[in-house]
Design a protein that fits this description.
This protein is mostly helical and 210 residues long. The protein is built from six helices and no strands.
């Protein structure tokens, strides 16, 4: 009788917070996929800029008088950028609290993060008006609306995940498994913030430099 080789894993911890956790790798691969998607959108944006238009943004001809250089407005988008950057503070606070298994600070941080996320979502809908084009006016409008819309979808997803974790720890407390889940969700929020800094520059400042 041949005995199959085996590994004794009885001394391994049931939950881990670092890269030894499968969910950590799953989240990392998810972010790779989402980053690739935005890279394709950015490539499309600059392709249209080079190939289709002599002026960027193109004139808006369906208004009187014609808008010759309708660059996106900056006020609301810049306020929203600052708000999204500020949301990093509670996200980092929550992540650190989870690593230390501090439930009360994690609750407070998650509530603040959810509030900031909701405000950012509301402001994003106002940002669509700052583009000064409808989504179907031309190719420029289409790609810019798509960039804003895809990031909006991530804002909504991240805020919903934060809200779900908030409800859970208020009702059930924070065990090791959910501490890890909240920590991983925090990494996702870091990505949402970081990718928006790049997109903000492309959408709102590139037209002013070209």
């Amino acid at each position: 009788m041949i005995t199959a080789p085996s590994i004794d894993v009885s001394k391994l911890p049931p939950q881990v917070m670092d890269k030894r956790s499968p969910i950590w790798w799953g989240n990392l691969l998810l972010l790779v996929i989402e980053t690739t998607m935005f890279a394709l959108l950015i490539a499309t944006y600059f392709y249209l800029r080079v190939v289709d238009f002599q002026q960027w943004p193109p004139p808006r001809v369906n208004t009187t008088p014609i808008l010759q250089h309708p660059v996106p407005l900056l006020a609301i988008p810049t306020v929203n950028l600052v708000l999204i950057l500020l949301s990093l503070a509670p996200a980092i606070w929550v992540s650190g609290s989870c690593l230390r298994r501090q439930t009360t600070p994690a609750k407070i941080g998650l509530v603040i993060l959810c509030i900031l996320g909701v405000i950012a979502i509301v402001l994003r809908f106002q940002e669509f008006q700052a583009i000064q084009f409808k989504w179907n006016d031309n190719a420029y409008a289409g790609i810019v609306w798509l960039i804003l819309g895809m990031h909006l979808a991530h804002l909504i997803t991240g805020t919903c995940e934060n809200a779900l974790m908030t409800v859970w720890i208020f009702l059930k407390g924070m065990d090791d498994k959910h501490a890890r889940d909240i920590h991983v969700t925090g990494i996702y929020w870091y990505w949402i913030v970081g990718i928006w800094v790049l997109l903000y520059v492309i959408v709102y400042w590139v037209p002013r430099w070209t």
